[in-house]
Design a protein that fits this description.
Blueprint: E1 4-8, H1 18-34, E2 38-44, H2 50-54, E3 61-66, H3 75-89, E4 93-97, H4 100-113, E5 117-121, E6 123-131, E7 136-148, E8 153-157, E9 165-169, E10 186-189, H5 192-195, E11 222-226, H6 236-247, E12 250-253, H7 255-259, E13 280-284, H8 290-293, E14 301-306, E15 319-322, H9 325-339
Parallel strand pairs: 1-2, 1-4, 2-3, 3-10, 4-9, 5-9, 11-12, 11-13, 13-14, 14-15
Antiparallel strand pairs: 6-7, 7-8
Helix pairs in contact: 3-4, 6-9
């Protein structure tokens, strides 16, 4: 059928996860270029607002496997459903979130189907590929774009020979967009007993404990981010927290700052952290290495505060303040408090 498949994850609250809606938004754009349909694969039990959530994002077909044993996620039953559905419908592209679930499931599916998989993509596009070895040009291939070699380059990977073309995509890098609030499609119920063996349910979950999320930096509208440059004084990140409290923001950190013990890993922004899209990002003592920029370059407005006028972050910043963050930040706090009364 050559459609595009998106595997949809379920949250602990039993809704469709945001990362899946981000993938569907991108899949809809790719499908329009290819003139094909977008199909969602959902495996769960009594998923809330399933149709009203998915259809407006441009889903043409919802493939739904309903069974109380499918939630919470277990590898083998989900693997059986996804692989058999792919073998039946033969999509040309299959997308997963680069989450703990997607990173567990997608490689197993790719290995079983003997097709390629590109992990942790930050962009997806449709383009052509010149196969010089076989003297041919292949149209409408999926460009799977991701940082490589420690983030020092951006690689574009294609899979001209096997299908489906598979990729996992980082959370937050695709924009979640409603396609048409009145959009509607087909609903296909997957007969679980025909797809899953009883032996697939080989794990019995006796109890579960969910730890509350301490930091929600991914959803923050304003982020004050500190780099390793804030390590020069002991009060460095305390000062950033004061600015964040003043602005109603969250504090973020670069990998160097996290490795230096200045902030928790949950606050790390970049290739090996989270990807954010705040309305305002303020970088304090952040050099702006490509690994970090990959996680925040889609911010609506970027302010860079740095003593180095040649810091890479300055090249993408909307506003640059050349100065010591320990002098600039207190003035920002004072000015904001004075003018917000």
């Amino acid at each position: 059928m050559d459609n595009i498949f998106v595997y949809c994850e379920i949250t602990e609250e039993n809704y469709i996860a945001d990362v899946s809606l981000e993938l569907i938004s991108k899949a809809r754009k790719l499908a329009d270029k290819l003139n094909v349909k977008v199909e969602a694969i959902v495996c769960g039990h009594e998923v809330k607002d399933l149709e009203s959530t998915l259809y407006p994002y441009g889903v043409d077909v919802i493939n739904y496997a309903e069974d109380e044993r499918l939630f919470p996620y277990q590898t083998l039953p989900h693997f059986s459903i996804v692989t058999k559905l792919i073998e039946e419908k033969k999509p040309q592209i299959c997308l997963f979130g680069a989450t703990s679930v997607g990173r567990d499931l997608a490689p197993r599916v790719a290995s079983y189907l003997r097709c390629g998989l590109t992990a942790d993509c930050t962009s997806l596009e449709i383009g052509e590929y010149e196969d010089k070895k076989n003297n041919r040009v292949i149209d409408n291939l999926l460009y799977q774009i991701r940082p490589a070699f420690g983030g020092n380059i951006i690689a574009t990977i294609v899979n001209p020979d096997t299908r489906p073309q598979m990729a996992t995509v980082r959370e937050g890098v695709m924009k979640k967009e409603i396609y048409d609030k009145n959009y509607s499609g087909e609903f296909s119920r997957i007969p679980v007993k025909n797809y899953v063996k009883d032996s697939d349910f080989c794990i019995e979950i006796l109890s579960r404990e969910i730890e509350a999320q301490k930091v929600n930096i991914k959803g923050a509208q304003i982020i004050v981010c500190g780099g390793y440059g804030m390590n020069s004084k002991p009060e460095g990140f305390k000062l950033l927290q004061q600015l964040a409290d003043t602005l109603g923001a969250e504090v973020g950190a670069t990998r160097a700052a996290v490795d230096g013990g200045l902030a928790e890993h949950e606050r790390q922004i970049g290739q090996t952290g989270v990807t954010v899209r705040p309305k305002l990002y303020i970088g304090c003592g952040v050099s702006g290495a490509v690994q970090h920029r990959a996680g925040m370059d889609q911010s609506s407005k970027i302010i860079s505060i740095n003593t180095d006028p040649n810091a890479p972050l300055n090249s993408i910043a909307d506003y640059t303040i050349i100065g010591d963050a320990f002098e600039v930040v207190p003035k920002l706090i004072e000015y904001y408090k004075k003018n917000s009364k």
